[in-house]
Write a structure and sequence with these properties.
The complex is a heterodimer of chains A (about 300) and B (about 260). By secondary structure, chain A is α/β, with parallel strands linked by helices. Helices cover about 35% and strands about 20% of the residues of chain A. The N terminus and C terminus of chain A are likely disordered. Chain B starts with a helix and ends with a helix. The chains are: A alpha/beta (about 300), B mainly alpha (about 260). Bound molecules: adenosine-5'-triphosphate and magnesium ion (MG). The site of magnesium ion has 5 residues of chain A, from helix 1.
Amino acid sequence: MPAKTTAQSGVDTGSTQEPLLSVKGVQKIYQVDAGEIEAVRDLTFDLRPGELACLVGPSGSGKTTLLKCIAGLMGATAGEVVLSGKPVNGPPKEMAVVFQEYGRSLFPWMSVRDNVELPLKNAKVAKAERNRLVDEALEAVGLDHVPRSYPWQLSGGMQQRVAIARAVAYQPKVLLMDEPFAAVDAQTRADLEDLIRDVWERLGITILFVTHDIDESVYLGERVIILSSSPTVIQEDIQIDLPDERDQLTTRSSARFTELRGHVYEQIQIAKHNTGASAPSNAAGGSPSTVAREEAE
Amino acid sequence: MSIAKRAAFLLGLPVLLVLTWWVTTIGSTSFFVPKPGELAQTFVRVWIGDRFFEDVVPSVTNLAAGIVLAIVLGIGFGVLIGSVRWLRALTEPTLEFFRALPPPVLVPVLMLLIGINDSMKIAVIISGAIWPVLLNTIEGVRAVDSVLSDSARTYGINGWARVRHLVLPSAGPQIAAGIRQCLSIALILMVISEMFASSAGLGFTIVQFQRSFAIPEMWSGIVVLGLIGIILSFIFQWTERRVLRWYHGLREVENAG
Ligand SMILES: Nc1ncnc2c1ncn2[C@@H]1O[C@H](COP(=O)(O)OP(=O)(O)OP(=O)(O)O)[C@@H](O)[C@H]1O
Ligand SMILES: [Mg+2]
């Protein structure tokens, strides 16, 4: 269990220390023709309201699987996910997800604006309110100049920004993001990272951000949860004690950042050889899984 | 393309064909092949007037009703069958069987069941024209992208909203391909439905002309059918280009990239 040190998040979480989201002993076994694939073995962690946690792990370690279980898109084989005290059985109303495959998550037959507006329309939000939310969200991601365009007329980074705008406009309590920046260039990526921190600070939402980029996880998160290789358990859960005010230049060049990053890197190296099948201290349980990439600066 | 150029492409081949026809029949006295001028005169004499309202309008009305119902029923059942896995497993073999039946053999059956009236004719058209729409819709509905589907689910877009905003647009290109086939089948069946025990309509009139050796008149009837086909195809293309504009744009981008 993570140590619940109240990291200053700029968000008033009130006096309550009740977790908003609890993942309790989640296991997921896929039934395939060739037999069974145990993607996730046993994961337990809590997110308190207003927290921004990053989830890192090697490719194939079950990050997407876990996210889908949390989002109620898929049932867990064992264990449960609890949101605001209620078990998650289907997609909860107060949750939004930004998927890894941005190119396939926007409706190609709708304009950018309609894409962002649809969830609100569907939730019967009044027209004036809807317009305001959509305008704000598009402005926040810097896309207020292309509302009439279709998603496929935009670059990959812009498409992912539309998906983020859609999630933000929806005003979820919990925002799940699955490697949202994997396919965008470094500059856009830096901008989007700052955008996420900004949105998080302004709206006080709870974010679970999946990435395999170690620098990104340390820069973004208040906390980094490291997964082992598949079958997956939690390798480590660390608090990121960097100041709240983060900046691409100063934060990334600070001594503490380098230190934390080194630590996460080390843990990932161990994680690559560890699976739920072997004890965390034993680095011999070799798994053929792909390597978590360390971004060169 | 400029308008003049487009018109040239549109009319070039037809003009050429008519010219060829005109040249080759200049000295002809064949009873079975009329000259262009002769056919044009016959066309005006036969079809502009009462016959237009007595034969063409009822036929086209049945055709339109048949097409609209085939499309609506095809899409409706297609969405239902495509969305429900067990229903699909249950109906697939049966659908293949009915689709394999040549629709004209159903005419006598439908005549017995429904009687000889417009409903029977519309039923004949539907019985053949519904299959491409139905089967293409089922395919299109099944092929809805899983990530897009998950996105819709996480935002609580379910039930009718899901059909309207996700399933139908996503299956749109497939459905359009089905409708294109549906149109030509429907035209054929309109004619066939009027050839049996009928007393009016385009199909009936053309057969009637042929039996009474009114050859130019018969040919002029065939021209009417051709014109109806062209009009249908224009309506289809015009609508398709508007409804599926996103799809054509997307394809262009994909092909360019
Ligand atoms: N629908 C599925 N059916 C069967 N096996 C699956 C399915 N989805 C994922 N898996 C398997 O589960 C394991 C975890 O996959 P998952 O996509 O969750 O990993 P990930 O951590 O998101 O990887 P990446 O970083 O590459 O996105 C993999 O071994 C994968 O092959
Ligand atoms: Mg993934």
